[in-house]
Amino acid sequence: MQKVTSSACEGCDLNKASNLKKLGINIDNNNYVVALAGNPNTGKSTVFNALTGLKQHTGNWPGKTVTRAEGGYSYNDKKYKLVDLPGTYSLLSTSQDEEVARNFILFGKPDVTIIVVDASRLERNLNLVLQILEITDKAVLCLNLMDEAKRLQIDIDDRTLARDLGIPVVPTSARSKEGIPELLQTVHQVATGEIKCKPHRIKNIPKNINNAIEKLRLEIETEYPNVPNSRWIALRLLDGDERIIEAVKTGEFITE
Amino acid sequence: MKTNKILNTSNDLRWQIGEGFHDKLTEGIYSDAATIAQNSVQKKGDEKRFRFDRSLDKIVTSKIWGFPIMILILSVVLWLTIIGANYPSGLLADLLIGTVYPWLKSIGESLGFSWWLSGFLFDGVYLALAWVIAVMLPPMAIFFPLFTLLEDFGYLPRVAFNLDHLLKKSGAHGKQALTMSMGFGCNAAGVIATRIIDSPRERLIAIITNNFSLCNGRWPTQILIASIFIGALVPENFAGAVSTLAVISIALLGIFFTFMVSLFLSKTMLKGEVSSFTLELPPYRPPRFWKTIYTSLIDRTLIVLWRACVFAAPAGAVIWLISNIAIGDSNIANWLIVHLDGFGLLLGLNGVILLAYIVAIPANEIVIPTILMLTVMTASITGVGSGDGVMFELESVSATGDILKAGGWTLLTAINLMLFSLLHNPCSTTIYTIYKETKSIKWTTVASILPIILGFIVCFIVAQVWRIMV
After folding, report:
1. Which of A126, A159, A216, A230 is most worth mutating to test chain B (most B CB atoms within 10 A of its CB)?
2. Which whole number is the average pLDDT over B298-309?
3. Average pLDDT, chain B
4. Which residue in the set B31, B39, B151 is minimally distant from A61, CB to CB?
């Protein structure tokens, strides 16, 4: 089921969506893997549907997606596999849906993680964003539900936000497909390395804890120089996370 | 091993920093988030919408009005379904059974099909399919879009909020309210949705009790039987309202059983602490009407209908076969019904109903068609159907009622069928899903057997009390 977007503006540089081919469930031979993460009820599945042309049922309640759904699209001659993760409030606890999300970002090593947030509830959503940014360097913030934020007269300075978070920020209203072309292009740029992210790391931590984290992180890094998210692993080890302890024992996160 | 070195260091460090690491980290994340949000978010205006959301929430989740509003909304949805489905159902039956069926038979004849081939194909498989479509499609096409509209509007989390308190009292997890609501659509989906519950103990409770949410395979059964037997007790003007009330009572009884069984499990097999959680009430969002109608028709109605058809076709074949293969001087179906009748009558049901439930284990959707067909066959009612194992034409709801009454049905049979439809084993898909989710034969067995035992007990008690009172 291939759908090619066609319009009078096709081929125009400004029309970034012109290079989008929705591939549905056709996800073989992909060049990049993109994960969709975010709080429940922020429109992840709507973004997923907009990009893949699939019709995941969307619903206005938390917990609708509990397994990961996969779909594909191609953009600028590159094929992307898109993985819709269950919505979670944090990655620090251990319910099964949260584990699905966390394990995929940590062990599935997506090339880009799109973090979908509800623009009208930014502060609460940022908790998860900050945790994800501890795990991965390559992320794009999809500031979704802008239409709702506008209705509530909430203004968001997306440039300041991008600077503070150290990752690109794209305002969207996925329900009406607004901002999707920009999102596609930004994901492409992060995937190809055109945009380099310098993600924010959690700062407000007491000194003694921070020292402990640093010490453990250095140790992990000297033993395994290629691990990208050593600080997160240190954090989880200090928290006594069984799954991560197990992963360190088996060396799961080191194998390519 | 170098990994052990890392783990040792982390153990040492964990001792050094002591407890509270998790809380301090969480605090750090929150304060970072607050700073970043402050830098980039600017709120203007008077937050009118927030106020609207909040005042609406105050009403729909209020201690006094929460439950009445919930019941009222459910009633309206069901009432619209009952009122709206009758006419198109008759129309579909006319078309599929009144017109297409004789046409297929005549084609079979002109091609020289032998009686058993034509019987097997058209009287068995085709009629079962036609029946399922005529009975199920109209109520689903009304019920699902309405339900989805409510879901998209954001009402489900409010239902969860209302039920949370009661669930906690029954020793279950508040999020079970959400999985329970999912179960009203499909139990298999509800069981999968229990993954949002962290504690394995509470998750098992949610899985085992999900079956007490009437699923879409059982709504049509409830609606049809209520319209025939209970709606008919009152003057025609009130029939719709009274049938609705009967169906609501069954649904509420299901919720009651969810609480009771949760309580029972959390006091016996699954003891433990109740864990707390935060439930976010999402903003109300105006549903996009046409898109919702479209996706709920495609995603739910047609998929469920397809599933029903996939199970109905072989079931139709089985029904035809057991009605036409003889052992001794009777056919298999008759033999089974006679042997099940004693036990059935003890429960206020009958042999036909029990046999129908055995044939219909793959899918609840085909229970009613199977019951009707078996009733026609054993009661040997003249004028309907045209041979053993032939499903007949459904001209109207009252005609269906006449058949059932001719088959010896009473109001008690109808009420107990509604109860039994609520309280019996989950369908095969759900059982398989439970096994996949729990990976435990023990819990899968508990989840399958427990409801049917309850069903036997409840039906037995109702039948005995009924026979003493009436």
Report:
1. A126
2. 72
3. 81
4. B151
Determine whether the interchain pair A237/B7 forms a contact, defined as Cβ–Cβ distance below 8 Å. yes
Could you tell me the mean pLDDT of each successive run of 10 residues in chain A, 256 residues long?
46 58 72 89 86 68 61 86 84 74 81 93 90 90 91 87 93 90 92 89 84 87 79 85 80 57
Contacts of A33 (CB under 8 A, 6+ apart): A80, A81, A83, A108, A109, A110, A111
User: For B313-364, what is each residue's pLDDT tens digit?
Assistant: 888 888 888 888 877 777 888 888 888 888 888 888 888 889 888 887 777 7
The C-alpha atoms of residue B40 and residue A157 are separated, in whole angstroms, by 5
Name the DSSP letter for residue A121. Answer: G
- Asked if B386 is an interface residue toward chain A (Cβ–Cβ < 8 A), one would say no
Gap between the Cα atoms of B355 and B459, Å rounded: 16
A2 close to B (CB below 8 A): no
Sign of the four-CA dihedral B342, B346, B352, B354 = negative
Range 163-202 of A in CB contact (< 8 A) with B:
164-165, 175, 200, 202
Taking an 8 Å cut-off on Cβ atoms, the answer to whether B39 and A154 are in contact is no
For residue B31, give the chain A residue with the closest CA.
A204
Instruction: Please tell me the distance from the alpha carbon of residue A35 to that of residue A108, in angstroms, as a whole number.
Output: 9
Nearest to B26 among A58, A92, A238 (CB): A92
* Residue type, position B465, single letter: V
DSSP alpha helices (H): ranges in B170-298?
A: 176-183, 187-193, 200-209, 219-225, 236-267, 289-295
Asked if A66 lies within 8 A of B14 by C-beta distance, the reply is no
Closest CA to B161 of B47, B58, B285, B258: B58
Residue A245 — φ and ψ, nearest 5°? Answer: -60, -45
